[in-house]
TrEMBL record:
Residues 1-81 form the Carrier domain. SUPFAM superfamilies: ACP-like. It comes from the Bacteria. This is Acyl carrier protein.
Length: 84
C-alpha cells in the first residue's frame, strides 16, 4: 500500500472526528490532528481504533503516542503493516 493510498484512507477515517471541514480539504503530511483539525486527545483514541480496524493492524501504546500528525501516523501504519 502506498503512502498516497494510506493518506486517502486515513483522511476518510479522520473526517468525522474533525471540527475543521475547511482544513480537511487540505490534509497533507504536515497536518497536525490537534492544532489543524481540532481533534482532541481523547478523540484521537477513537481515530487509532478506527485505523486499526481499517488497516487490520494493532498499534501499541508507544506507537499511538507518536500519532499526532499525518506523517507520523502514516509511518506507524506502514510499520504495523510491514509486521503483519
Amino acid at each position: 500500500m502506498t503512502q498516497t493510498e494510506i493518506l486517502a484512507k486515513l483522511t476518510e477515517i479522520v473526517r468525522p472526528y474533525s471540527q475543521e471541514s475547511t482544513a480537511m480539504e487540505h490534509v497533507s503530511m504536515e497536518t497536525d490532528f490537534i492544532k489543524d483539525l481540532k481533534i482532541d486527545s481523547a478523540t484521537l483514541v477513537d481515530v487509532v481504533l478506527d485505523v486499526e480496524d481499517a488497516f487490520g493492524i494493532t498499534i501499541d501504546n508507544s506507537a499511538m503516542e507518536k500519532m499526532t500528525n499525518v506523517a507520523n501516523t502514516i509511518a506507524v501504519i506502514e510499520d504495523a503493516i510491514s509486521r503483519k
